[in-house]
Amino acid sequence: MKILNKVLIILCLVTINANAEEAGWIDSFDGEPEHYVLMRGDETIPVAPLTVLLIGDEIKIKDKNSRIELMLQGGSKKVEVTHEFSIFRVTEDGKVPSALSESWKSIKKFLRYWYTSTSENGPPVSTGLTKGGDESQKPNITWLDGKSRLIAGKRSLLLQWQNGKPPFKIQVTHGSEKLWEGTTENSWVMTSSINFEAKKNYRITVLDAENKEDVRGFRAVVNDKSLYNLDSFLQNNNKNKWDFEISQQLIRR
Description:
The protein is α+β, with helices and mostly antiparallel strands. The protein folds into two domains: 21-131, no CATH class; 140-249, Immunoglobulins (Immunoglobulin-like, Sandwich). It has helices spanning 2-19, 101-107, 230-235, 243-249, and strands at residues 22-29, 36-40, 43-45, 52-54, 58-61, 67-72, 77-82, 87-89, 140-141, 149-151, 153-155, 158-162, 168-174, 177-184, 188-190, 194-196, 200-207, 213-221. It has a five-stranded mixed β-sheet, covered by helices on one side. A four-stranded antiparallel β-sheet has the order 4-1-6-7, with no helix packed on it. Strand 13 and strand 14 form a beta hairpin. The radius of gyration is 19 Å and the shape is globular.
């Protein structure tokens, strides 16, 4: 009987996790990821920009001078959480409203750390970057391919990748000119502000601890008048060339 009860409890927890309602994502935060704890039931979720948030998630800020910004209600409500909250809980009020369900479907493929739950009709209902990665494989930069475009201007970038062994060395270059360089133990990094000039090509290089690297490029372009905001980009189905731009627009909105 005790074993049966344990099995039932585990099944209930799995069901709760699989059916947890979606709320939004982590927009940005001060300091290091280690200053924050994101709990999902008994699981600790790595804190990173674009980490998906579910109803019931709890966030604790360990450093009194730090703050974290969340996009709730499918991205329509920004919430700033500071140390004085002690523990901030994502409640039912933060869930994605039905009016934004179609927009949310487009957004969530860019978000990190989903539970993968199988629907009755086929494939997993959750998508996005998965936790971890294979350290034996070379890094794999996400959202960038030979056709990627970025709106020109002075801006910082969120760079993300999977696989590879930390620490990582990251460079942003234009031809032989090094525009930015950094190192991290994480599978993502925020650059400082860089001036990207229209009609010029740029490269991102991620090098891991075993000198395995991935190099991807993009072209900076003048903003098309028909693509002036996030919703316009999400609705533009042009062979994914705007995926990198969309991933940038989802943070610090």
